[in-house]
Amino acid sequence: MINEIVGSEVRNILVIGIGGGGDVVGSTITYNLAVNEGIDAILGAVLWERYVVDIIPGPIKIDELRSAEYLGNYVAVVNGDTYAIRGGRRITPQIANVLSVVKDDGIGISISGSIIDIASELSDYVSKYGIDAVIGIDVGGDSIAIGNEEGLYSPLADSYAIAILAKVQELTNIPVILGIAGPGVDGELDRDYVLMRISQLASKGAFLGAYGPTRSDIALLEDLLSKAVTEASALVYRAARGFYGSANIRGSTRSVRLDIVSSLTYYLDLKMVLDDLPMASMLINANVKDPWDAMRLLNSKGIMTELNFEEEVYKYYKAKSRIPSPEEAYLMIKEIKNKIKSIKQTAR
């Protein structure tokens, strides 16, 4: 099935969790599919953890990693023992937790630099190790948002990673696929809205297929969830186990509609959909130098990002020596969104 999705015969494939943190857990469904079909698969992840794991704003840098093989400034070989030192604290990226279960090495990608610099390093890795295709997995579907959606607040990592993968495809000319796992399970975009966006992209001929987890995938997810910290990918597992109805997320500040459709991963041709992903396209065209630069650009368009939120959470943590409660965090998000909207309106 992987060959049908990619559109060519592949021997080596790189599967990357692009949204940071727990997306690598949902990515293992596609990784496991490739492995079970006899394809050499490598698991990768964007190194950016949620504030409940890492209080320091922004992505993890490569030189902050320990027990890892640096391949440059933005790419490293990581394993089940890899950790990072951030603000004097030891942080375990979720990809390390996943690799400790699957007993394999993987690739950590720091999106702390410019899109072109990161893409160049990742392209060098792809060429050196004979990768035939790359599949980037977004759990939830923020990557295909327009940017003005009411519930959206963390589109930066996804959009930045998509911009990088688009450049990788340009530099290497290998197939690059965007996978949307568990539409709406991250509690931001509504499930039906994500499916509508997938349908819009499919109408352009970009839909490559869909895959639902088998018993072996579900068993692997269960093992992973005993170690990894993730709410969204955990809901993909719950959906695969037959949960039907509303599930709470983010400390019950958000509710997610779940059914068996929420366990599926939908695959799209990245090259065909890129022009319909305005945030990623904007970042590419602006040649942003790092996520902070990207945040300012998106803010100027009235779009809030997770980096805005993390910076406010860090200020709160420094002032009160604790992270905000889910309710406090939810109010913080609303305040940030309103502030960004007002700044945009004033600038008109």
| Cα end-to-end separation | 50 Å
Question: Structural class of the helices, strands and pairings?
Answer: alpha/beta
CATH C-level label: Alpha Beta
As for the CATH topology, it is: Rossmann fold
Tell me about the biggest sheet?
9 strands, mixed
The ordered H/E elements are HEHEEEEEEHEHEHEHEHHEEEHHHHH
Q: Report the sheet-strand fraction.
A: 15-25%
> What is the gyration radius calculated from CA atoms?
18 Å
Q: Which of globular, elongated, flat, extended, rod-shaped describes the shape? A: globular
Low-confidence residue ranges: none
Individual helix count? 13
Helical fraction equals 40-55%
Give the key terms.
348 residues; alpha/beta; Rossmann fold; three-stranded antiparallel sheet; 43% helix; globular
